[in-house]
Write the structure tokens for this entry.
Amino acid sequence: MIIKFWGVRGSIPSPGPNTVKYGGNTSCVSILVKEPPVVLDTDEHPDEERLIILDGGSGLRELGIDMMKNIQFVEGILVPLEMWVFFSHTHWDHIQGLPFFEPLFIKGNCVHLYGEKKVSISLEETLKGQQQYPNFPISLDEITINGGKMDFTDLYAGQHIHVGNSVMVSTTKLSHPDGVFCYKVEESTEEGLKSVVYATDTEHRNVLDPRLLKIARGADILIYDAQYTPDEYVGNVGMPKFDWGHSTYEIGIDTALAANVKRLLLFHHDPKHTDQDIDKIVEDAETYAKKRKKEVSGLFKDVKLDIELTVGAAYESQEIELK
């Protein structure tokens, strides 16, 4: 699988000279998986690509532009695209890219959209709401009439969605105002399972979240909300951020170590944080990770633990291949 980041910022897009390195678009991550060839009646069918998209912030627009560069035609006929979009939740910074997603407007394309159903409103109703007059000139219904096909699936916590033959997407709920879904994307390969956990917009409270620990256990990559520094979260810098629905690199590292995750990527960067601020956060996070590794190793002297965790900050255009 190939993971690529199109938007890594939280709350609101923040373009400008101070966010060039990490990017200013809001949350959007793509995961491209190639299905192994299938042999039927001695005829080998070629690989098929499955594109999974996590969240539809303003970074979704950038992904759409890139996809349109690679459209293909066979004998003058457009080869349709199919994609699976999973929304962690429907706060605006996670859905605002959808009306500007170019593949959505192309006849023949198929977009499967997944997200949590609220008590009184479905995912479809929520997404249609942001394009109602006077907020946007084109409704979602108009796009479906003239453009690609869309189907909507309301999810519940603990559900498993199969995408093709080799990919499964699992869900769990985490803590955020109005709720949020965490997704685990697993690819079954000849070498075993490869997995990415997407845990944005979540708050840790006073303990590590057992739901996140369970779904992230042994993951190759954990993409984790670290919008605030520890000082910002408790109010040593600015107002306290309790109950704002976001976390810190310290809890991300503690969670990754406890869940035996191989790689932690800090995500959902605060719109006020400059490139220099995030560089400092990464430096502090690496120092904290080394300290915690020693402390964890000291607790289990007679047990060999796999705690070779690496820590970094996600940035736009970053691409990671898991083989």
Remarks:
- The chain has a mean pLDDT of 91.
- The chain is about 20% helix and 30% strand.
- The domain at 2-321 is CATH 3.60.15.10 (Metallo-beta-lactamase; Chain A).
- The first helix runs from residue 59 to 69.
